[in-house]
Amino acid sequence: MFVDQVKIQVKAGKGGDGAVAFRREKYVPNGGPAGGDGGKGGSVILKVDEGLRTLMDFRYHRIFKAKPGQNGMIKGMYGRGAKDLYIAVPQGTTVTDADTGEVLGDLVENGAELVVAKGGRGGRGNIHFASAKNPAPEIAENGEPGIERNLKLELKVLADVGLVGFPSVGKSTLLSVVTSAKPKIADYHFTTLVPNLGMVRLDDGQDFVMADLPGLIEGASQGVGLGIQFLRHVERTRVILHLVDMSGTEGRDPFEDYQKINAELKKYDPALLERPQIVVASKMDMPDSAENLAKFKEQLAKDDTLATKPEVLAISSLTHQGLDELLHKTAKLLAETPAFETKAEKLQGEQAKVYEFEEQAAEAPFTLTRDADATWVLGGAKLEKLFKMTNLDHEESMMRFARQLRGMGVDDALRERGAKNGDLVRIGNFTFEFVE
Questions:
Q1: Does the pTM exceed 0.85?
Q2: Which tens digit of pLDDT belongs to each residue from 321-360?
Q3: From the CB of residue 175, how many other CB atoms can be counted at a distance below 10 Å?
Q4: Known binder of ligand: residue 284?
Q5: Does residue 215 have a known ligand-binding role?
Q6: Is 172 marked as a binding-site residue?
Q7: What is the DSSP string of 351-368?
Q8: 318 known ligand binder
């Protein structure tokens, strides 16, 4: 089964907790703190595997969690860092944050890696908190939480040449004749339900990858037929072979079909029409094809919608008429055409520019709301992270967290909102009393 779009959940490993410990060796009085740091949590990394051709593996395995780091130990021993979790993806995978829409990366090269969720750092042990005023601190940090994300993976096939056109115009037949691919071929519309790839090898040593893309119809860019689902696969192609059925069967007009497919490509991404395109007049072995081709060329010459007129080549996959000329001209066009930016790459570039040049609004360090039961509720990413990294088993760690809250302005904010002695304040599942 061909799967080209999935959503997965990834969670990096939490850092190990720092330890509170003291030296208790014979003949070493007042040995001091000796609690080690926790190890770092494992990150989640996507890695390209050229042996994969589909996202099928993610259909039934959608949640990926890296291991947490080991806790710190006595005698200043650090915890072991967890191994990173590598997830294999096929070439051509675009990774997007499903919640924010941010494009995280476009994985094209074999072996390319992308860290999608960074593991948390290990918490510091009490060995780091010793000072002249407090030589024996009972303070240690919990490990930093790992990043958790919902990701959208989209596969866009890596093909140099894309075959587009209405259903049953001969795309699969052409692919089966010029490559070793064996796509399903039948005399009904939408025989091809998934993209098929084949390698074309010419006598002069040139080769390129050709993709037979599922048949488009009018309204595909709005989801009609197989819809927009497979239009994304056209994005990576450098040359488009636009197949038009010249037999005129089913009462269809070849030039109207040609215009409708171009209109769908334009609606999806206007830049697609800027790519080199060859109009392939297929089924020239049929009785009325020659007459329809002549009429098509006249209509194309009068068409003012295109800046440059595409070349029209007549072929018959059945009799192999015109195939050599088509393949050699396609190879020549490929040699002259550079790679194009996909929509995801453009979006990624725009996001980078926004991040670089526009001043980002500073995120509030905390939020303060009040529940129906009059409990004050503290939230915010920064505050919640500090709370998770606080070791609640030791009073000194709690006092340190209270000082951090005061430094963030939480006490002042509570007073401004009318908090009084004895009011309950909640952070997550932890509740304490506000004391002036």
A1: no
A2: 889 998 999 998 888 887 766 666 665 555 555 444 444 4
A3: 25
A4: yes
A5: yes
A6: yes
A7: HHHHHHHSPPPPPPS-EE
A8: yes
